[in-house]
Amino acid sequence: MDTEGTIVAVTATRDAKKTEPIKIENLFLYENGVEQKIKNFVVDPSPAKIMILVDNSQTLQTSVEKMQKAAMEFAYEIFDGDQLFTLAYDEKAEIIQEWTDDAKKMEAAFTTFRKKGNPHLFDALNISLKEVLLPLMPGTRKTAIVIISDGLDRGSKTSFDAILGELQNLNVTVYGLQLPDRTGGAYRRDQPKAGPVMNRLAEETGGKVFPFDEAQTAAKFICDELRKNRYLLSYVPTNTSYYDARKLFLIADEGVTIRMKAAHPPNVK
């Protein structure tokens, strides 16, 4: 283990009436029910690398034009130094635009959005991690994926549990722009329902889900949050086995709102 111990990203805000900084004394961290001593808690003002992952599948309940408009909202809201990478998927994932902060490039690239085939969401997330975000690490700590979809996966080789574990392992925060569930919430054998997929991916990585028709509000919230309200928390785990999943629970004093990932997968130090 390195001298910093375990580092996790935390989103933290105070109620509007209070202005004093959030400190270690305001926070209480538990791992598998055992309280942990927080070693450090510092604001992280570094630029963000944000992936936009767009569902290009045939039966998604919106138009290509509305998808383009929703994705463009992020080009207008990013801060200096932030960059966006856009990947679209049906059965295969396709690079739409590599890392850039140029809105005109993104606008031109987004004309290639389409509606075709079935959504292999979990495979697309796997490619996003292994081929786009992982090469940036460990130098880039602040990474996020914004999924624009209803959360349906139909045919991925990658399982939901496997991809959630990898997102948590790499400290990638997931946000969602949620479209109406094209299945109507139908039961799916051996597969999670579309709506809960989006909610769990976001909530268990420390992110948040927004309605698709609130894309402008969502883009501003996400970009602001990543730049202004992101912290790094470090601690040296005690009474812990690295060979088991480690559930995390962070609580804060009244007036402080916090979000972070829900667990470390096995073998994560």
Q: What does it look like?
A:
There is one protein chain. With 269 residues, the chain is α/β, with parallel strands linked by helices. The chain folds into two domains: 77 residues, Sandwich (Immunoglobulin-like), CATH 2.60.40; 168 residues, von Willebrand factor, type A domain (Rossmann fold), CATH 3.40.50.410. Helix content is 25%, strand content 30%. It is built from six helices and 14 strands. The strands form three sheets. Strands 7-6-5-8-9-10 form a six-stranded mixed β-sheet, with helices on both faces. The protein has a four-stranded antiparallel β-sheet with strand order 4-11-1-13. Strand 6 and strand 7 form a beta hairpin. The model has no long low-confidence stretch (mean pLDDT 93).
